[in-house]
Amino acid sequence: MQLLLHIWRQAGPKAKGHFEKHQVDDLDEHMSVPEMLDHLNTKIIKSGGSPIAFESDCREGICGQCGFVINGDVHSPNKGTTTCQTHLRSFHDGQTLYLEPFRAAAFPIKKDLVIDRSAFDRIIQAGGYIGVNTGQASEANTILINHELAEKAFDAAACIGCGGCVATCKNASAMLFTSAKINHLSMLPQGLPEASRRVKNMIKQMDAEGFGACSNTGACEVVCPQGISITNIAKANRRWIKG
Q1: Considering the entire predicted model, what is its pTM?
Q2: Would you state the pLDDT for residue 142?
Q3: How many CA atoms lie within 13 A of 48 on its CB side?
Q4: Which end of the chain is more exposed for a tag (fewer CB within 10 A), N or C?
């Protein structure tokens, strides 16, 4: 399989970037996109060049660190799919691909396709803790939670923090990510004591990081590899108003 790759190269956050062209003629359609970059990097290193920097960890669609933009598609041309779950059979032989990092002021480019997502970490840290005196582990059934509520909390907790929602939003809003993190704790009894303080602190930190405002266009929900619903944003807004 052949692909013509135009890959974003940038030495650092303040360096000027550019697309670098690579013609790769010996690819296997069953390779994932990160495996393709591994293969290309082997060739670049052997020729004495500088390998392309990109992120990946689990390569199973769990951690979300692999994300970048492929031909304008955040993560992947396939719905509900992370970059590492995208295989070359998703493209046709001889196709030209443009690979570039997520673009957002709150996600500065560290190098090439690698961005700094630490703003997300600071939003989570602003949420504080859950004030439950654990002591000895209690019987699981002592706190009764109905199935529907538990499933909604699990759905929100499925967010992997990839940043795809920010990359596709015209305002670079992090509201889908932030609302998912707010709701998966606040929907359960254990998270209620700090719920009001949590929503105020997390949204305040989100604004301080430089993310834009949500305009409710729904693009974030479309590209989210975990299918996080924008109803989380409405729920978080209601909690914020009450708080």
Answers
A1: 0.91
A2: 74
A3: 0
A4: C
